[in-house]
Amino acid sequence: MVDEEMLKGLKKYLELELFPRIHMKVACGVSLSTARHWMRSKGFRYISHKKGLYFDGHDRPDVIEYQQNIFLPFMKACEPCLVQYVVGNVEKELETQPLNYIECWLVLVPHDKMTAQVNNNADKMWVCGDEHRLKKKGVGWEIQQSDIICLMVGYLMDASESLEYGKNHEGYWTDKHFVK
Q1: 73 Cβ contact partners less than 8 Å away, ≥ 6 residues apart
Q2: How many CA within 13 A on the CB side of residue 176?
Q3: How far apart are the C-alpha atoms of 146 and 163, rounded to whole Å?
Q4: What is the β-pairing status of strands 161-164 and 44-48?
Q5: Closest Cα partner for 2 from 178, 120, 92, 173?
Q6: Are strands 44-48 and 85-86 parallel, antiparallel or unpaired?
Q7: Element holding 37 (H helix, E strand)
Q8: Which residues contact 42 (CB under 8 A, 6 or more apart)?
Q9: CB-count exposure of residue 7 (10 Å: 0-12, 13-18, 19+)
Q10: Could you list the mean pLDDT of each consecutive 10-residue stretch along the chain, which spans 180 residues?
Q11: CB atoms within 10 A of CB 10
């Protein structure tokens, strides 16, 4: 299907836009086999989809700069106030003296979310040269699972939330979902 869609698109472009622009007429039009031959002659290949990982940009220069210059120094400044546990035994809290009796202890509460998405697209695609594109996300079913683990009380089951997201479902994940 995708094979023919791409070829039909090329055929339509050639017959309705390019050839009239250069004042060229083609009696019977361009066949799909001719379009396929032209695609291959220009270095395109029709290959099976390669599976791969999606990286969410945590290694972008602006993100690394924020982590190094803002987030990590802030976390280091909070370290004396963090509740700490014996390495290898999260049941046993380290005995530490507070800096003063006015500041409260801070408890690190990690939050993690996972997204799963159905991909209903074709298994093959046209690519140029050695290119291997990731499939575009489909409009299929999407779900996001969010969970929180507190070092003091463990897994917070009441804070766990599943969200069918997208404009036709429950919307998108926001900070309001986190503090709910």
Answers
A1: none
A2: 5
A3: 8
A4: unpaired
A5: 120
A6: unpaired
A7: helix 32-41
A8: 128
A9: buried
A10: 74 87 83 86 79 66 92 90 80 76 78 69 71 59 77 76 70 65
A11: 20
Write out the two tokens for 6. Answer: 């791409």
Torsion of CA 48, 50, 51, 52, to 10 degrees: -160
**82: burial class by Cβ within 10 Å (0-12, 13-18, 19+)?**
middle
Tokens of 106: 């801070």
Beta bridge partners of 155: 149
DSSP symbol at 70:
I
Among the listed residues 87, 80, 88, the one whose alpha carbon sits nearest the alpha carbon of residue 104 = 80
Q: Are strands 44-48 and 154-155 parallel, antiparallel or unpaired?
A: unpaired
Identify the burial level of 125 via C-beta atoms within 10 angstroms of its C-beta, where 0-12 means exposed, 13-18 middle and 19 or more buried.
buried
CA separation for the pair 42, 73 (Å, rounded): 52
pLDDT of residue 109: 79
